[in-house]
Design a protein that fits this description.
Family: Belongs to the peptidase C56 family. HSP31-like subfamily.
Keywords: Hydrolase, Lyase, Protease, Stress response
Helix content: 25-40%
Strand order of the largest sheet: 2-1-3-4-8-7
Structural class: alpha/beta
Number of domains: 1
Shape: globular
CATH superfamily: Class I glutamine amidotransferase (GATase) domain
Distance between the termini: 10 Å
Radius of gyration: 16 Å
Number of helices: 8
Number of strands: 8
CATH topology: Rossmann fold
Order of helices and strands: EHEHHEHHEEHHEEEH
GO molecular function, one term: glyoxalase III activity
Protein name: Putative intracellular protease/amidase
Organism: Halomonas organivorans
Largest sheet: 6 strands, mixed
């Protein structure tokens, strides 16, 4: 039976200093989209502000621009999905079985404090659905509170882009905060792979998180298994 999955993407086009562009890390969307599509699931996009989605330039270069991402860019219908995303106010969480927060450094600015995204994630989770994220997408989980006032991530196993990976990527000094440290401060049981930039997925009941872009496929497969 087909399920409905909501992908969350960022509207942010640059770091705090506008000299450094950023945006959606495209393969983190396309890898999951392909796996969900193969299962026949119905997929939709939402962003904090709705509307157009910028793409992270680094993810559009070899070798990071892989077959999946190239196929998306070559498909006019799929490209158009990124020009007219829904806003949180357009979304009824009851219509969805899972939410998947994509990454790219952009999300560090517009995911954590967006009340609409928090509402959707909370209602999906409390309705028995799956909350998932990959890479920096876990920034969207930092402030999701449940109806009892507790944070979704507290005491739960979580992974996401590590501070070591930020340093190795050469962008640590430009980050607005240390996402790994902040997740630990929320009481999450943060986990990461022994080596940077290798696939790692953490599953805690209906919370599924992947560490980095290399984890998108595995994250989606775990979501499919739970669905």
């Amino acid at each position: 039976m087909a399920k409905r999955i909501l992908h969350v993407v960022s509207n942010v086009a640059h770091y705090a200093d506008s000299v450094h562009p950023t945006g959606l890390w495209l393969s983190e969307l396309t890898h999951a989209w392909d796996i969900f599509a193969a299962e026949g699931h119905d997929q939709h996009l939402v962003s904090p502000c709705g509307g157009a989605i910028p793409l992270e330039p680094r993810a559009l270069k070899w070798p990071l621009l892989d077959t999946s991402a190239r196929a998306w860019l070559a498909d006019a219908d799929r490209r158009s999905l990124l020009s007219a995303t829904a806003s949180p106010n357009d979304i009824d969480a009851a219509d969805f079985d899972a939410i998947y927060f994509t990454g790219g450094h952009a999300v560090m600015w517009d995911f954590p404090d967006n009340k609409g995204l928090q509402r959707i994630a909370r209602e999906i989770f409390e309705g028995g659905g799956i909350v998932s994220a990959v890479c920096h997408g876990y920034c969207g989980l930092l402030n999701v509170d449940l109806s009892d006032g507790s944070l979704l991530v507290t005491h739960r196993r979580v992974t996401g882009f590590s501070w070591t990976e930020e340093v190795l990527a050469g962008v640590a000094k430009k980050m607005p905060y240390n996402a790994e440290q902040t997740m630990r401060e929320r009481g999450a049981r943060y986990e990461k792979a022994w080596l940077p930039f290798v696939s790692k997925v953490s599953v805690d009941e209906r919370l599924v998180t992947g560490q980095n872009p290399q984890s998108a496929k595995a994250t989606a497969k775990h979501v499919v298994a739970l669905l």
